[in-house]
């Protein structure tokens, strides 16, 4: 009798998503509370374990946004970031009071450079503060995560001592951040193994988390090295957005574990079929366009142009694709829609594409679809997604475009006439400019009374063909802050105006 060898169950790795906190700290990526809720609801569909919803002490508006998320999203744990100060911890208590499952994430830097120049604290003071503040947080939270900021540039023996102190004080999770993206995968893996050796409860009774930044392009590699050496939680963001060069990319970490499970013997509970949708929603809400060659979710990630590659793919997909695009939510076949398509077919497409809209939103999106169908012969999935995201962006705005006329003559500056509407109020203005877009933006400045500096402007085609839908993303500076906006239309000038209006409305909300 032959007995079958039991297959060892993959080790569980938790996904701590910080798109709404660290990701939102990308310049210009700041989101309104309504936009943050849209992203949080998608993260719930993605099935992340923890959503770090924000930094409560930052502002009353941040507290309100986290409360709104806590009321809407119930399945994941909702976390709030706090410095090791009583005021920050109290703010987190207020922000998370409606959360069904809540966690506080406290941090205090430990590296020599941070101790000397930023904190002006000695090692003994660090240890004392860690003990006092975790003990204080334990009065209000059962789930407490501690991060020794800039851990990878901290003396190893002191880092191990700080971790031990935090666990003794009541920390249920220890996060090791590579705050400035300084370490290498081999170094980081060795550090994680060292900390597990010094504190054997890590990765078992106490969650061992890592938070890697991408300054040297190694964030995902460092996170994966940590998993091989005992970490059982990864802090990451959708599309890898975040401070400076960003964070470990959720989709890269998750799909590496799935694709190379025989190496890592670990897996997540992520619903990978929602990865592509999540990427698009985060891109649309933040205004940060995904680079075409971005791993897993970039436009070119599953594209093949070379003849040898195309021949191989046609004969056997796995010759040049190590992942099935269908797994992450991409469709290989497209249902082409057009001007003769009705509401039922349109609503069916919305459901298939993963959109959950109310009747009013469906009607607005359908009306925009019909307008596009009169301009464009064939409408693809990407067009419908762009239409819906555009409608969502416009619905979150106060002022929206009612009328646009641009005159361009060879020997004269372009002249733009714009009418915008908010509720029952209408305003009209006109202006000339160096180009048609510049003229439109100057007219918007006149009519709204908001003058902003255009920092970034990008446009790309949603689909192929001369009648393709154009999608414009802008980033503007106003005061010390940056704001993003996006718009879509077959007319790139109209798309540009829509994008700029979204950004201006964010400024008005802030003011």
What labels would you give this structure?
511 residues, alpha/beta, TIM Barrel, 3 domains, eight-stranded parallel barrel, 17 helices
Describe, in plain words, how this protein is organized in 3D.
The protein is of the alpha/beta class and 511 residues long. Helices cover 41% and strands 20% of the residues. It has 17 helices and 16 strands. The chain has helices at 33-46, 60-72, 86-95, 112-119, 123-137, 156-169, 185-198, 219-228, 250-259, 261-264, 275-286, 307-315, 343-352, 359-375, 381-395, 436-448, 492-510; strands at residues 11-12, 14-17, 50-54, 77-83, 102-107, 144-147, 173-178, 207-212, 233-236, 266-267, 400-409, 412-422, 425-432, 453-461, 470-478, 481-489. Strands 2-3-4-5-6-7-8-9 form an eight-stranded parallel barrel, surrounded by five helices. Helix 1 packs antiparallel against helix 11 (275-286), helix 2 (60-72) packs parallel to helix 3 and helix 5 (123-137) runs parallel beside helix 6 (156-169). The longest helix is centred in the last third of the chain and has 19 residues, at 492-510. It starts with 10 loop residues before the first strand and ends with a helix. The model has no long low-confidence stretch (mean pLDDT 89).
């Amino acid at each position: 009798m032959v007995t079958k060898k039991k297959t060892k169950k993959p080790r569980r790795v938790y996904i701590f998503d910080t798109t709404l906190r660290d990701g939102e700290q990308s310049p210009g990526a700041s989101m309104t509370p309504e936009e943050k809720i849209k992203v949080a609801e998608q993260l719930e569909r993605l099935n992340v374990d923890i959503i770090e919803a924000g930094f409560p002490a930052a502002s009353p508006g941040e507290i309100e946004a986290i409360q709104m998320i806590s009321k809407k999203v119930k399945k994941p744990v909702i976390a709030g970031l706090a410095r090791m100060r009583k005021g920050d911890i109290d703010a987190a208590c207020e922000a998370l009071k409606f959360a069904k499952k809540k966690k506080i994430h406290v941090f205090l830097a430990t590296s020599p450079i941070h101790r000397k120049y930023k904190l002006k604290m000695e090692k003994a003071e660090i240890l004392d503060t860690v003990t006092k503040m975790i003990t204080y947080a334990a009065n209000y939270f059962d789930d407490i995560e501690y991060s020794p900021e800039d851990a990878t540039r901290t003396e190893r023996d002191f880092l191990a001592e700080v971790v031990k102190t935090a666990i003794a004080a009541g920390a249920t999770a220890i996060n090791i951040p590579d705050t400035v993206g300084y370490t290498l995968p081999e170094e980081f893996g060795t550090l994680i193994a060292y900390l597990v050796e010094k504190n054997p409860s890590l990765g078992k009774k106490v969650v061992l988390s890592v938070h890697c930044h991408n300054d040297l392009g190694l964030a995902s590699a460092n996170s994966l090295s940590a998993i091989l050496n005992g970490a059982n939680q990864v802090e990451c963001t959708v599309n890898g957005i975040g401070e400076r060069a960003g964070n470990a990319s959720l989709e890269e970490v998750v799909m590496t574990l799935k694709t190379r499970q025989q190496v890592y013997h670990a897996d997540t509970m992520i619903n990978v079929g929602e990865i592509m949708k999540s990427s698009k929603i985060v891109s649309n809400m933040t205004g940060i366009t995904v680079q075409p060659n971005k791993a897993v979710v970039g436009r070119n990630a599953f594209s093949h142009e070379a003849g040898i590659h195309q021949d191989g793919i046609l004969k056997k997909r796995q010759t040049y694709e190590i992942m099935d695009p269908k797994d992450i939510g991409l469709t290989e076949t497209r249902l082409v829609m057009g001007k003769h398509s009705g509401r039922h077919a349109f609503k069916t497409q919305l459901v298939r594409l993963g959109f959950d809209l109310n009747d009013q939103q469906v009607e607005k999106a359908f009306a925009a679809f019909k307008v596009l169908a009169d301009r464009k012969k064939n409408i693809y999935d990407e067009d419908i997604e762009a239409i819906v995201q555009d409608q969502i962006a416009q619905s979150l705005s106060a002022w929206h475009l009612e009328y646009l006329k641009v005159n361009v003559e060879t020997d004269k500056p372009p002249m733009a006439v714009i009418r915008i509407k908010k509720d029952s109020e209408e305003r009209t203005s006109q202006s000339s400019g160096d180009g048609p877009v510049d003229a439109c933006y100057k007219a918007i400045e006149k009519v709204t009374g908001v003058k902003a500096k255009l920092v970034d402007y990008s446009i790309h085609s949603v689909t192929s063909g001369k009648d393709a839908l154009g999608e414009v993303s802008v980033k503007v500076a106003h005061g010390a802050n940056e704001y993003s906006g996006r718009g879509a239309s077959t007319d790139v000038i109209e798309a540009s105006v829509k994008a700029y209006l979204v950004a201006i409305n964010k400024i008005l909300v802030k003011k």
